Amino acid sequence: MNPVNNIQALLSDELSTFEHKFKEAVRSNVPLLDRIMHYIIRRKGKQVRPMFVFLSAKVFGEANDVTYRSAALVELLHTATLVHDDVVDESNIRRGFFSINALWKNKVAVLVGDYLLSKGLLLSLEQNDFETLKILSRAVKQMSEGELLQIEKSRTLNINEAVYFEIITNKTASLLASSCAAGAWSTTQQSEIADKMRQFGECAGIAFQIKDDLFDYGGDGIGKPTGNDIKEKKITLPLIYTLNQVPKARKKELIYLLKNKNTKKDYIREIQEAVKAAGGIQYATEKMYVYRDKALTILNNLPDNPYRQGLADLVHFTTERKY
């Protein structure tokens, strides 16, 4: 069975209750907004981040109202960033469905994202969940910083490994890290434990993003490669390693292709093959496993129960998944 299905079974009561509470949280008296909220709920993904919240909470105790509000806030913030991302990226498809901006245009999509953000803030403020709000507001700040840093660096293609890790730590790993911290805080109210879980989530999030980067180059059983990052001129870890390994003249060629030929299939394939030949795939895979193992090491010092195992299963799923 898929590890996500196992975890959904382990958290079946919590996820069922969460679904009901989340629907209530996004309800609106404005008919257009309510219609869009129904559409968002219908096309939701696997809800991996709320799973991380509940598992991180239940490692230390029983889920409570703060836990449910934390999971809802995480999902609201995550959904808001996806809606805004689709506008920024001019993307018309999200998870196989039309994006909000494709159906209702950019202005409505931006306002929907703002609505989701404000709903999340109010959900916490109205219940005095100040620590949860602090934990997750930090993630929103980091995500914006990471996205802007990536945009800035992509213009000049001037990204080294240190900058790459700064980008993905902020852009991707911060929300997962905050999900784990908020979940742990909800059942312990201990900053030290919440910070330990934040570190765990950050390592898992970094491993998750490196795995996503590897999809651009295909691999065993993946059925890709996609080449999407190359088309968007994103410098990811396999390519950074390659550019540092190849002779200077070849590096200039590859950067030229990335800048000027990044939408043409033959040249995308040439970049992909250069990365494979230079060992970029192997290097990035090894780095991914380093962060996976860091996350698992933190877990090994937590109480031994099915929820700790659930977190370990989720970490393994993020690095072994085929999609």
Tell me about this structure:
The protein has about 325 residues and is mainly alpha-helical. It has a single domain (about 5-320), classed as Farnesyl Diphosphate Synthase, CATH 1.10.600.10. Helices cover about 75% and strands about 0% of the residues. The chain has helices at about 5-10, 10-25, 30-40, 50-60, 65-90, 100-125, 130-155, 160-190, 190-215, 230, 235-245, 250-260, 265-280, 280-300, 305-320; strands spanning about 95, 95-100. Strands 1-2 form a two-stranded antiparallel sheet. Strand 1 (about 95) and strand 2 (about 95-100) form a beta hairpin. The longest helix has 28 residues, at about 160-190.
Topology:
Blueprint: H1 3-10, H2 12-25, H3 31-42, H4 48-58, H5 65-88, E1 93-94, E2 97-98, H6 100-125, H7 130-156, H8 161-188, H9 191-214, H10 228-231, H11 237-245, H12 248-260, H13 265-278, H14 280-299, H15 306-320
Antiparallel strand pairs: 1-2
Helix pairs in contact: 1-15, 2-5, 4-5, 4-8, 4-15, 5-6, 5-7, 5-8, 7-8, 8-9, 9-14, 9-15, 11-13, 11-14, 14-15
Biggest beta sheet summary: 2 strands, antiparallel
What is the percentage of strand-forming residues?
under 5%
The CATH architecture assignment turns out to be Orthogonal Bundle
| N-end to C-end Cα span | 16 Å
Helix coverage percent of residues? over 70%
Shape: globular
Encode the helix/strand succession as letters: HHHHHEEHHHHHHHHHH
Give the CATH level 1 class: Mainly Alpha
Number of domains: 1
